[in-house]
Amino acid sequence: MITMQEIFNEISKNGGLTPSRKVKEIAERFPEKIAFRNKEFGIWHQISYEEFWNQAQYVGNALKFYGVGPKDKVAVHSENRPEWIITDIGIQAIQSITVGLYPTNPSPEVKYLLGHSESKVLFAEDQEQVDKVLEVIEHLPSLSKIVYFESRGITRYDNEKLISWDEFIEIGKEEYKKDKDFVIKMQDEIKSEDTAIMIYTSGTTGPPKGSMLTHGNLEWVATQIPELSFTTGVDNPQYLSYLPLCHVFGRLVDLIIGIHTMGTINFAESIDTVQTDLAEVQPSVFPAVPRILERMHAGALVRMKDASKLKQLLFSLASKLGDITAKRRLEMGERDFIARVTNFIAQLLGFRALRKKLGLLNVDNALSGAAPISPEILRFFMSLGVPIYEGYGMTENTAVATIVPADELYLGSVGKALPLSEVRIAEDGEILTRSDGTFKGYFKNLEATKETIIDGWLHTGDVGRIDEFGHLWITDRKKDIIITAGGKNLSPSEIENRIKISPYVREAMVIGDKRKYLTALIGIESDTVGDWATRKGIPYTTYEDLSSKDEVNELVSMIINDANKDFAQVETVKYFKLIPLELDHEDGQLTATQKVKRAAITEQFAELIESMY
Asked: Residue 179: which H helix or E strand, with range?
């Protein structure tokens, strides 16, 4: 069997491949190697790379049967599961274009995304997703077929556009028998400039834009794999697929890195069981968005408060040693002898057991991306023995432009430009990137494309700086910078992330543009605050009721006051209000990647905001 170092050597020598070609190659070289493990009703099922490639070919043949050809769009609306990636590979292999939808996209967004993309076929996970599209089907003239993965509740539906996954695959098998080389011939004709996937951006302002990523973009990212400090050096790596595959971060990890490292991708049973599945799978690689890391941090702290006195003592001792470990590694490097000794003792005292519960036992380092994260959260995981490397990228540069080098870990830095990537700062502070990962443009939006790509440089919309060591530091989104009534420029995300260090705070949105002082809207973390209230003997019924308690308001007040100590007077939050409900994507308050839609929140809670001024 091939080792990880041999895989890296092959990539360094030959470059990366577009995903469908890589799957075909692995299926031919290592047909029995396990590609997927999927848990159904508590039982794990395996799919080899040979079966993976065969099913992808059946998908390609069945799509041809239904009139899908090069440059046609095919959408997938599902949670992560083997069929998602199998379908994606089958679509790309015949030169068609995959469009991913978030499982949380409500019916109006489904209508927009399928209509704007002109998708001809939709793969829907279950009755819930089928119902969403059927609700708006009369507005989607391009959509000719809906393939559903799970038949429960759908079998009685009377609609000629509906077909089950099993029936669809059977059609693909029959078509495959007629021309076994069809998919391979189509795959051989793929050009680097051809669009492979279309990813719709979050849409924090205005409707989502469809970013066109080419096969060349995906090949370029795959070529970078040996340079990525978070890529595991473990042979036969295990991945847990839980980051949405319709997001560029999820695609980077599962579709590109997971496949190119010939790993086994384990699928979480559901989004609600991710923590349990992490503990069971114990993956070799752990990529995460800040929200996941913040919740793991909060959960660990709350768990310790409910633990026995002995466990609390051991955790306290381990934490002190962990702090020494983190400090020494930051100052002296990863191989520092004292750091290794303190980490070893901390693991024995309790960190090993905690890492096992978190699903991080086999993870030597992890990756955080997609949004800013507090350095204090990074320090917590580093003290735990799991350094988290930040990287910087976005959909429009195929997920990665910089990464923190393994031997240059600075908390808060998103690292240095990759060898085949350039990063510079414009006169107004905007971060610009240039590489072969730069996207093709926005679908049916030439004006936005021209505003984003100027003279080959991608204008990211982020503001930052590059230090004397070449490390990039993100300040904030350009459009989110607050300019106070006094003319002071402030970064709200830095203040928000400091507040969100608390395990009791889920959301924090700082307000102050053109205002005399800063205020904040705070959303509490229902689980941890609920646990705190129970231990304090404070009765409550609903989230709104809990948020209205004077004691909870006092708790958050202490958190705000503590955070204010780290900032200059002009940067401190003077007043705050608790949001009376949990923010939700389906209600238009969050993007599908759980980022706060500032404009929507400002409008919805206008009275609450004005009451602070």
From this structure: none
